[in-house]
Amino acid sequence: MVDHSEITTDVTPASKEHLRRNLTNRHIQLISIGGAIGTGLFMGSGKTISLAGPSIIIVYMIIGFMLFFVMRAMGELLLSNLEYKSFSDFAADLIGPWAGFFTGWTYWFCWVVTGIADVVAITAYAQFWFPELSQWIASLLCILLLLVLNLVTVKVFGETEFWFAMIKIVAIISLIVIGLVMIVMQFQSPSGTVASLSHLWNNGGLFPKGISGFFAGFQIAVFAFVGIELVGTTAAETKDPEKVLPRAINAIPLRIIMFYVFALMVIMSVTPWNSVVADKSPFVELFVLIGLPAAASIINFVVLTSAASSANSGVFSTSRILFGLAQEGDAPKSFANLSKRAVPANGLIFSCLCLLCGSVLIFLIPNVMMVFTLVTTVSAILFMFVWSIILCSYLVYRKQHPALHQKSIYKMPAGRLMCWICMAFFAFVLVLLALREDTRQALIATPLWFMVLGLSYMLLRNKKAT
């Protein structure tokens, strides 16, 4: 049974202002489930299906398997010390202050880049109804709305996210059920295509694009999982983390099977993979192809709210990350100031200004899918860095605190071994990104971020020393 008691986390900076996160458990449960359904699934699955064919299902399962162990490592770390509230907390404690600085700022940048990808996706979905609307103007309006929503109160954010998540969950379950009915009834679309599970292996087999096509599917598929770590950090803020956190993490495999595997199997059974359009959402196109335009409008609304949900979470997260960094002296002090509504307004405005880069990109590069691929690649690389820091922190924790590990009520299975396997997998994905031209550019540009961070950290350390 869901406990609807209030969860309030007060953080007091030097100014004695309080950051109040009045989110009920009802909000947290739905936000954690909704976090498993990313924009990459709705927007990027068209491209991943066209790249890999039915083998994309295996891609999602492999990534989900690896990230489950990353979340288990995070779960054990968070429960080993209930004072830990974020990655930067245990990274700074276990690895060193530099790790906390790099992790905090990289996680902030992760969500800014993800927010840009979400804004790009939202403008693409808006084209479905308003083909004449300028994409960069649509992105500006979207960012302004996100800023206004988050400047009000945290309760508005919680309630908005609750209903956004509910819409996504109901929509995907409905899509799976409707698709299964079509398959059983052998529904025939106006184009003459008959819905059948045989589409998964009849059009070139499970690997129609070969092993290279299979590998090519990993980039946007990885992006579909970004934000999965919010499940742990949100659950850790509840009054009973020993119960809530393991329950949230243990549900990840079931969510991956339900939201990714079943949904994509249904899509490719109703619409053969070689009929899926790469630069459009297959969730929308499925209903267009079977002659149900009204349903397509509904699904387009669903995927638009999904992208808006992710962008909303990103804006919320970045402002709180900046607030925490400012408290630690790792960001300008102004980010620790709160508005009369107990909202870190300066951080919000700064993050939204950074999101405007998405509008600039759309203006400079009118090809939405090209922009989406660029920003999702950067986001995927940075999130893999954060996930790797979690694994490195776990390895240090195992070495420095063997007694804590022995007492843990939520031990990571095959802890040390799976840490190395997961990090080797992330390195493998980086190699794959280097092999494709459309992702190589982002891979080459990403190290600039770490160079800027390194220089900033040295300057900050010298300033503190004096």
List the keywords:
disordered N terminus, cell membrane, two-stranded antiparallel sheet, Amino acid/polyamine transporter I, mainly alpha, 466 residues, 21 helices
Verbal overview:
There is one protein chain. With 466 residues, the chain is an all-alpha fold. It has a single domain, classed as Amino acid/polyamine transporter I. 73% of the residues lie in helices and 2% in strands. It is built from 21 helices and 4 strands. The strands form 2 sheets. It has a two-stranded antiparallel ribbon with strand order 1-4. Strand 2 (10-11) and strand 3 (19-20) form a beta hairpin. Helix 3 (56-80) packs antiparallel against helix 13 (252-270), helix 5 (97-129) crosses helix 6 and helix 6 (135-152) packs antiparallel against helix 16. The protein starts with 5 loop residues before the first strand and ends with a helix. One of its GO terms (biological process) is amino acid transport. Residues 27-462 form the Amino acid permease/ SLC12A domain. It is a multi-pass membrane protein. One of its GO terms (cellular component) is plasma membrane.
